[in-house]
Write a structure and sequence with these properties.
membrane; mainly alpha
Length: about 450
């Protein structure tokens, strides 16, 4: 089992160039890989948006469901990265790859099960979210086709977690870059060339995801064989991975419930606000993943240094990356504010969507420094394996946020842009402030810094 919580480490000196290079070496490539999925959705939105508001709103609603399904499985990456990094830091590369292999098998099993369930539940779920008429038809068509890509998406998540734990974020960047280019070409050909409408956008993304999954599998299998690690699953290890993912699933479930509840309120504000909200949330996700590049660096570096027992270095890394996160949030906030009036034209010609989107983006820009703080500390605590606290804090944050959403819904603000402004104020300022408070309080203690690795090499001991 991991060693007991260390005493508070003495203050470390300001990080030198080597520490900064470590962070940038992981964070810069991670940025490109992380934004692949939101870029896929942005490409789908840009291509589908010119077909009409109903198509754009339908794809937005379906994408929210799809992101929820896949987002709940993000523990496949978030549990693999710190576990593999700890074992790597302790000099146990073969054990690290065995953990990664078990995670890939779990990803495949869960992906197949979720795809089957999604095909059956797509219609009822979309109707529960308030969709109807043409919006429902387009959302259902996009979602049903997209379910074929769920196993591939989960395999990609698990494989990226393994490579990050091995301190390799460049390979995911390369795979994501090629995948993004292929995705755009396929979607344009299927949507406009073969006139497949929203189904074409979904199919192009599915084919791209399976291509990316195949590349990752080749890379991980070769690395495992180089360390004489069997490719066949160790089902005891698979079960261990699934158990450890429980707390991270609760943490992620609270995040997805917050996003789903926000979409439900946006749906009640009419098609124009829903379409604008979909675009705003996609842009938020894009920026979140950009900020999360530092969180990925935190997961990999914190896990490795805790595995090696370097507590002082962990404190230094945490402090440095937190400041970087806030600073990066300031930069992205200013850029978003400047782009807010014009960005809507990239996706649709509807003036109502433009006005609502521009107003929402201004509010989102104000919350970017806070978002940078939140995402970095979230990555630090995930890297430390502090999943139980993150899960409980996530439930507390949701308890704060839901009354804010209820007020926005009950205020009957209508379908004008101000209604969407209040909705985004509740999300990007109120909800994110609650997350920042719970994460910041935890980071000030030393209870999350458990050093060492399990003696068995398994996740969770």
């Amino acid at each position: 089992m991991p060693k007991s919580v260390p005493q508070e480490a003495p203050s470390a000196p300001a990080p030198g160039p080597s520490t900064s290079r470590q962070i940038l070496h992981l964070a810069v490539p991670a940025f490109g890989a992380l934004i692949a999925e939101p870029l896929f959705l942005l490409a789908d939105s840009a291509i589908v948006g010119h077909l009409g508001v109903a198509e754009l709103a339908g794809v937005g609603l379906a994408a929210t469901v799809l992101q929820t399904v896949v987002g709940l499985m993000v523990f496949l990456a978030y549990s693999a990265t710190p576990a593999v990094a700890r074992l790597l830091g302790a000099g146990r590369r073969a054990d690290a790859l065995a953990v990664g292999r078990d995670g890939l098998w779990l990803a495949l099993v869960l992906g197949l099960a979720l795809a089957a369930a999604g095909w059956l539940a797509a219609g009822p779920v979309l109707r529960w979210m308030g969709a109807g008429g043409p919006v429902l038809g387009n959302a259902h068509e996009y979602l049903v086709v997209s379910m074929a890509g769920v196993p591939a998406m989960l395999l990609v998540l698990a494989a990226m977690g393994v490579l990050r734990g091995l301190q390799d974020t460049r390979t995911p960047l390369l795979v994501a870059g090629v995948g993004f280019a292929v995705n755009i070409a396929l979607n344009l050909a299927l949507v406009y060339g073969l006139r497949m409408s929203v189904a074409g956008a979904a199919l192009g993304t599915v084919l791209t995801q399976w291509g990316m999954a195949a590349v990752y599998l080749v890379i991980v299998v070769r690395a495992a064989r180089a360390e004489s690690v069997a490719v066949r699953p160790d089902w005891a290890g698979v079960r261990t991975v699934s158990r450890v993912g429980g707390w991270l699933t609760v943490r992620t479930l609270s995040l997805r419930m917050a996003i789903l509840a926000t979409v439900v309120v946006a749906t009640s504000q009419g098609p124009a606000n829903l379409a604008a909200h979909q675009l705003a949330m996609t842009l938020f996700t894009l920026l979140a993943f950009a900020l999360d590049a530092l969180a990925i660096a935190a997961q990999a570096l914190i896990g490795k240094e805790l595995g090696a027992g370097n507590v002082t270095v962990v404190r230094t890394l945490t402090r440095t990356m937190t400041w970087w996160g806030v600073g990066f949030g300031v930069v992205t906030g200013l850029a978003l504010w400047a782009a807010a009036p014009a960005v809507g034209w990239l996706f649709t010609n509807d003036a109502g969507v433009h006005r609502a989107l521009a107003a929402a983006l201004v509010v989102m820009a104000l919350g970017q420094p806070l978002a940078g703080y939140v995402f970095v500390l979230d990555g630090v605590l995930i890297g430390a394996g502090d999943a139980r606290y993150l899960a409980l804090a996530g439930l507390a944050n949701l308890a704060v946020y839901l009354p804010l959403l209820w007020w926005v819904r009950a205020a009957s603000l209508g379908d004008a842009p101000p209604a969407l402004v209040w909705l985004w104020a509740a999300f990007s300022l109120g909800y994110m402030a609650a997350r920042g408070a719970t994460l910041g309080l935890r980071a000030r203690t030393c209870r999350w810094m458990r050093v060492g690795v399990p003696a068995t090499g398994r996740i969770g001991g």
